[in-house]
Amino acid sequence: MDASIHIDNLSKSYGTIQALKNINLDIHSGELFGLIGPDGAGKTTLFRLLATLLLPSEGVAKLCGIDSVAEYKKIRSFLGYMPGKFSLYQDLSVIENLEFFATVFNTRIEDNMDMIHDIWVQIEPFKNRLAGKLSGGMKQKLALCCALIHQPKILLLDEPTTGVDSVSRSEFWQMLKGLKKKGITIVVATPYMDEANLCERVALIQDGEILQVNSPAEIVEQFEKDLYSVKSDDNYQTLLDLREFEHTNSVFLFGQNLHFTDTRKQFAEDELKQYLKNKGRSNIVIEKIQASIEDCFMALSTKPEANE
Ligand SMILES: Nc1ncnc2c1ncn2[C@@H]1O[C@H](COP(=O)(O)OP(=O)(O)OP(=O)(O)O)[C@@H](O)[C@H]1O
């Protein structure tokens, strides 16, 4: 079964705002694929184009080899789409929501129980509760069941873990791994860079452009510089100091640390320590660290050519 997505030079503008710029992307059949980027990057726009809810300004998208514009009705029959904003009827119960979505797709819950069973057993105890009264994690599970009730070949999940606690987030990713085993192509849009590691391949997207497509491991391997974590008594002041340091290639605040790269191949830790001491910093700790997806994203998004 071909459940691939092929995107060729796809662009979308809203008036003067170009939300997507010449996107080229191939997502393989059965892949668990991540679309990773910050708010406003264009993730929702891309999903809405793939879900046949928007028309492209230019370019072509094919799902299972079928054109998203010319044959949009066919696509709707085999596509599952879970929008970012809560898509359920708050004043219907859990079971009524599921029945509603089954009816829309001209099917019955009992005919599709094999597809949703593992998720359904977790929300069944609450089946008579109004959807609006569910916790965030439960709403998300119900929304996933509703998106799956017609046995889609391709599933698009727009920020499914935004605003959900960390236990529910990790349960959700476990559920996606289970669905992948059923052969569904799953595309997850997320602003959480750490979730990239849970995908087989990811596209990093910013300002409507794809910066890179690869496996998370290969993206990290391609990080070109030696990366250092820098800490001191005052991290914010250290950030300002490092911005002035003549050999700084990049410096970003990452949680409690700063991530720093030097323009030179030969990094001189003592020289940097002395520079920061001279600036009045104390308790300076400098350590070489492995780059994360977020470091790669920052490096790619601040490359001069990425900003043109
Ligand atoms: N209907 C619209 N009219 C005008 N501009 C829009 C519209 N929808 C989105 N945009 C703009 O298009 C760009 C991409 O937005 P989009 O919602 O696709 O990004 P996103 O990555 O999903 O981010 P978010 O999580 O914030 O929705 C943004 O600049 C946004 O302001």
UniProtKB/TrEMBL annotation:
Q: Where is the ABC transporter domain?
A: 5-232
Q: Which domain of life is it from?
A: Bacteria
Keywords, A to Z, come to: ATP-binding, Nucleotide-binding
Which SMART domains does this UniProt record tie to the protein? AAA (SM00382)
Q: Which PROSITE patterns match?
A: ABC_TRANSPORTER_1 (PS00211), ABC_TRANSPORTER_2 (PS50893)
Which Gene3D superfamilies does this one have? Answer: P-loop containing nucleotide triphosphate hydrolases
Cite the GO molecular-function annotations of the record.
ATP binding; ATP hydrolysis activity
Query: One Pfam family of this protein, by short name?
Result: ABC_tran
Supply the name of the protein.
ATPase
UniProt source species: Labilibaculum filiforme
